[in-house]
Amino acid sequence: NEIYLHGLEGRVPPFTTDATALGASARDHLDAGAFGYVAGSAGSGATHRANREAFDRHRLVPRMLTDATDRDLRTTVLGTPMPAPVVLAPVGVQSIVHREGELATARAAASLGLTMTLSTASSYTTEQVAEASGPGSPRWFQLYWPNDDDVCASLLDRARRAGFTTLVVTLDTWTLAWRPRDLDQSYLPFIRGVGTAIPFSDPAFRAGLAKPPEEDLDAAVLRWVPMFTGTDKSWSRLPFLRRHWDGPIVLKGIQHPDDARRAAEAGIDGIVVSNHGGRQVDGAVASLDALPGIARAVERTGSGMEILFDSGIRTGSDVLKALALGARAVLVGRPFAYGLAHGGEDGVRHVLRGLLADLDLTLGLSGHRSPAELTPDDLWHRP
Ligand code: FNR
After folding, report:
1. Which residues line ligand 1 (CB under 6 A)?
2. C-beta separation of 139 from 118 below 8 A
3. What are the sequence ranges of the domains in the chain?
4. Predicted complex: ipTM over 0.90
5. pTM of the full predicted structure?
6. What would the CATH number be for the domain defined by 2-381?
7. Mind listing the pLDDT tens digit for each residue in 306-330?
8. Which is the closest atom of ligand 1 to the Cα of 89?
9. Fewer beta carbons within 10 angstroms: which end of the chain, N or C?
């Protein structure tokens, strides 16, 4: 109704509703460094392209005369009720893209009841984002796992007290990959933006500095880089997180069935099958291609560990394909970051509403009332 009524009034959307064209149109709103930070990927971009190409190789097989008029997209993921199986992926240093950064994203997500995942590299503090998100709004916290246990415990404690319910531990970024677009800019936008990232406001982090980051940013960055790089993490360290986090724990960046099995055996609550949007290992397997094997491996454990998915989701049809192959929900990254570039909070909302509407329409037109109905049999697959 809204779309047709706007048409009658001669109103058009604020910017494109074609999610595959969002990047190109966001380019007009960003300087080269900021655009490179969002759009960039590792190495030659092979994995980034493979992510999209895998979606093209999988096709929905619509069913007719099923009466899919009344649809219900609601679901619950790791105890968090959701209006649709869509979560905002952690995206760091959003102030590079828009002055209001994570605050704008938090408001947009909250207005739609969607869950936001706040990055450890957020340009606004845990407490500021919680306030922008508002009481009762669903929020998860993403951890870049520092090798200083006091700082780690402090980050988790702050997140918990600020109402973040689920911990998403990113495993695939213990150092940044070879990212030519960022390297060609000497990571300038990133380094300028990172000075306000969450660790810099953390009391345990600041306790190790002679002067606060506001007075000596160089020293703060030199403490931060080794603390969040090359950390000596192994499966045996997971109990540390359990001791410091009493909610669900999710491991993000799983691409091998054996790692998924280990996570299930370790009692982890969920995983995100992800290659970080092709930003870490150039030439890594497409995330969608990794998903079926992982879903089978997890099924065999009988653990009930929940599987989430990201990397390459652009359209409603993409969401349905990931769900059909075993994901319970998906995370989206670049699309909402491009929305942020276009118009802050309104821009993020425009992109997310478009994705939800597209998802709803495509679900119905495929002959289903609920995403839970989808199975691999609803897909055709070109090897
Ligand atoms: C990311 N991603 C990411 N992941 C994470 O765990 N912590 C972070 O701080 C960031 N930061 C970040 C910045 C930018 C600009 C992008 C594009 C991505 C990865 C993100 O959570 C997600 O895995 C991918 O973005 C998913 O792929 P798509 O949806 O961008 O194709």
Report:
1. 37-38, 89-92, 119, 121, 142, 170, 252, 274, 276-277, 279, 310-313, 332-334, 337
2. yes
3. 2-381
4. yes
5. 0.98
6. 3.20.20.70
7. 999 999 999 999 999 999 999 999 9
8. 21
9. C
